[in-house]
């Protein structure tokens, strides 16, 4: 059975597809919550060393005076503030200060300002000063889980089905997410966050694959899912778990591939019923006839050829595409997550900045949608990734006391990288030839997870020099834009099916008068035959 022919008969935007799009878009909510959660649960409150003198009782001192006696001042960006990691030494039995001004580390722990954050893992586990890197490690471990989850649950999705993988991931997401909230051990917390990252990514992409039931709605499903995923701060796990068991069916395409024809037919009949389409036995036989025609049009060489990951670098054009896409994905993910997680470090109220960043991304998604239709894929990515880079470089040059301007440039950078990231996902799915498209996008996505792992640690460079992280984001963004300039535009052209087709296409684009490739005549004939098949299906 040819599901593409069946799909044309069922209709592209019936009641079933609309409900499917809504339900699958909601899956992005818990996934986005888990990714953005560290901006709050790992927020860094103001802190200083715990000292007896910080309690004025018995000393007849106000709290600020007691702090001045206990904590030395340090200069940060030209301003004086109480040290966060040093204290004056105390030597006598009553806790009075020595006449000297020697200092030491916070051996008795820290005290935290609770005016904005009542509690976070930073205050719970003392992830400050020489332990600050553990906070970034916790986020990197989460991103490592996201990368592993894409591999493990991608295999499960292909082996056991999309629906069972989705339900398993949603159940585990609920279990691990709630468990992480009640752990009192940093190691256990990190392990649970790793597992949450894995199952969140598994649920996200299992739902995305179910939603791509037709070729022409991949961009809409992806962008709508992205638009939902980062925006809402509401508990959605229970809501997203039970409706999917009842209202979502297994992917008919996967059932056909797994040779479960009877189950596939039941799902197809359900879709036809909800869309109000008649699907008789005679129609099935005609659709199967279309499938046989298409199979006969496939040349023996194309049917027997086995492609592997080596084909991603076998030809000159494929090496260029693979390298450019890996660089673009790695940098885009690194800069995107860095700017999102860095929201808590911006001047102003953290919650206001977070909502502002979410609003910026909502607008960015719609801009990406429009620009891809009008300008293609390549040009919008290059333009907006350079917007992100220039904005980050400008933010790095703003003086420390002009925090509002820094926040403005940071939001402009987030706007640019959000558009670039969305465009890149669609672009990468088109630039690789059909026979190795999944391998190409998969390995690029896997490489990009290194960017997610590195992102939290780049932020630590601000302890060395405050503008350094933003400078790195700006330079890296420009490198990503430059890397994509060597790639072809994919919008509005017939996409190549094999690496050999890609080489022929590259020669034609570079030499307008070049002779046609050997298989162009065959491709034209095949296109004509496919049109005839489409007309046959339309008449059913």
Mean pLDDT: 76
Structure annotation, total helices = 23
Topology as H/E string? HHHHEHEEEEEHHHHHHHHHHHHHHHHHH
> How much helicity do the residues have?
55-70%
CATH topology group of the largest domain:
Growth Hormone, Chain: A
First-residue to last-residue Cα separation = 16 Å
Pfam family, one: Sugar_tr
GO molecular function: transmembrane transporter activity
Membrane topology: Multi-pass membrane protein
Transmembrane segments: 20-44, 137-157, 164-184, 190-213, 321-339, 351-369, 381-398, 404-427, 447-464
Write the layout of secondary structure elements.
Elements: H1 3-10, H2 15-26, H3 28-36, H4 38-41, E1 47-49, H5 63-70, E2 73-76, E3 79-82, E4 86-88, E5 103-105, E6 110-112, H6 121-125, H7 132-160, H8 162-182, H9 186-211, H10 218-229, H11 237-247, H12 252-257, H13 261-275, H14 281-297, H15 300-304, H16 316-341, H17 350-375, H18 378-396, H19 403-431, H20 437-459, H21 468-484, H22 499-510, H23 520-538
Antiparallel strand pairs: 1-6, 2-3, 4-5
Helix pairs in contact: 1-23, 2-9, 2-10, 3-9, 3-10, 7-8, 7-9, 7-20, 8-9, 8-11, 10-17, 14-23, 16-19, 16-20, 16-21, 17-19, 18-19, 18-21, 19-20
In words, what does this structure look like?
The protein is mainly alpha-helical. The chain folds into three domains: 1-41 and 132-297, Growth Hormone, Chain: A; 47-112, no CATH class; 309-519, Growth Hormone, Chain: A (Up-down Bundle). It contains 23 helices and six strands. It has helices at 3-10, 15-26, 28-36, 38-41, 63-70, 121-125, 132-160, 162-182, 186-211, 218-229, 237-247, 252-257, 261-275, 281-297, 300-304, 316-341, 350-375, 378-396, 403-431, 437-459, 468-484, 499-510, 520-538, and strands at 47-49, 73-76, 79-82, 86-88, 103-105, 110-112. The strands form three sheets. Strands 1-6 form a two-stranded antiparallel ribbon. A two-stranded antiparallel sheet has the order 2-3. A two-stranded antiparallel sheet has the order 4-5. It is globular and about 90 Å long. The two termini are 16 Å apart. Residues 54-58, 213-222, 226-239, 290-303, 511-515 and 519-540 have low confidence and may be disordered. Keywords: Membrane, Transmembrane, Transmembrane helix. It is a multi-pass membrane protein. One of its GO terms (molecular function) is transmembrane transporter activity.
